[in-house]
Design brief:
By secondary structure, the protein is mainly beta. The chain contains 1 helix and 21 strands.
Length: 303
């Protein structure tokens, strides 16, 4: 009987101890562990020597090749390295480009290329730290500095928008460069730059300065007309001033003819030198000799 009571007490003690332990672990239960998040690398597939392209009416209008491409599984994005490509905004026009790396949205046919080099029609090269391409809308743009070089025209600036549908290129600000002709080399600067591909016209707009040998020309807007790669003439408009060897010529319009190497001032032209003002129907400045001539002059001296 006594042994039986001892066994009952021991069993009751075990039961009580189990309940205490269970209660303890219930209060101290471990926190729920969140499911592991897949690494970004695990959501992408790595390819080598890839080619992407877009078609319109069965004709390939753009393509990109790359040494390596990382294609994401859950979104239409591709990361490219050591890439090159080209696109054809219209028949007969090919724009080639290359870069160290970039990204591409394969659905929207948009992408960004870093350290980009662009070759346009084999005539101009363009470099920029980064450039965005919209192949569907034929728009190329950047907010970074750009460096453009051609046989006759070279310039730098900040920010660019090229619309191949409209066939226009605009550099937004801080434009500097030079025009190189057979007879002279002119450096220029302006607030912005505009290029119309249809008629091969360049426009410098806002606080324009054109510098040649022994002359400085200032105006509001300057148009450069070219035939192929060769500049034919420059039209300066709005508060035109030309300064050469102490003589100042002023008018509302002036035209520089590259073949004749002369500047013709019209629309109320005037010349100022040594307190003498001369007006006439037109004023001609010879760039090579640095001399002015005036048709039907009228003179006025200041006391």
């Amino acid at each position: 009987m006594k042994n039986r009571q001892i066994i009952i007490y021991i069993a009751a003690g075990f039961i009580a101890l189990s309940l205490l332990l269970a209660f303890y672990f219930f209060l101290k239960k471990p926190e729920r562990i969140a499911s592991p998040i897949l690494n970004e690398e695990k959501r992408a597939i790595l390819f080598k020597d890839v080619r992407y392209f877009g078609e319109r009416e069965g004709i390939i209008d753009w393509e990109i090749t790359a040494k390596t491409a990382k294609k994401f599984i859950d979104k239409p994005e591709v990361q490219l390295e050591h890439l090159a490509g080209q696109y054809k905004p219209k028949a007969g026009v090919t724009v080639a480009f290359k870069g160290t790396k970039g990204t591409m949205d394969t659905d929207k046919e948009k992408g960004v290329v870093e350290d980009v080099d662009i070759l346009y029609k084999g005539e101009y090269t363009l470099k920029s730290p980064s450039m965005s391409f919209d192949f569907k809308n034929n728009i190329t743009s950047t907010t970074f500095p750009v460096d453009v070089k051609g046989k006759k025209l070279t310039l730098t600036g900040i920010g660019l928008v090229a619309n191949m549908k409209d066939e226009t290129v605009r550099i937004e600000r801080d434009v500097r460069g030079y025009i190189d002709s057979e007879k002279a080399k002119f450096h220029f600067q302006s607030d912005s730059f505009y290029y119309n591909l249809k008629d091969n016209t360049y426009v410098l707009d806002g606080k324009v300065v054109l510098k040649g040998q022994d002359m400085n020309m200032l105006c509001d807007k300057l148009y450069i007309f070219s035939k192929g790669q060769d500049p034919e003439r420059i039209d300066a408009k709005g508060k035109v001033r030309l300064i050469s060897k102490g003589t100042i010529a002023k008018s509302e319009k002036a035209v520089y003819y590259f073949s004749e190497d002369k500047v013709v001032f019209t629309e109320s032209p005037r010349i100022f030198k040594d307190n003498v003002e001369m007006v006439g129907e037109s004023v001609v400045y010879s760039v090579s000799s640095g001399r002015f001539s005036i048709q039907k002059p009228k003179m006025r001296m200041e006391r």
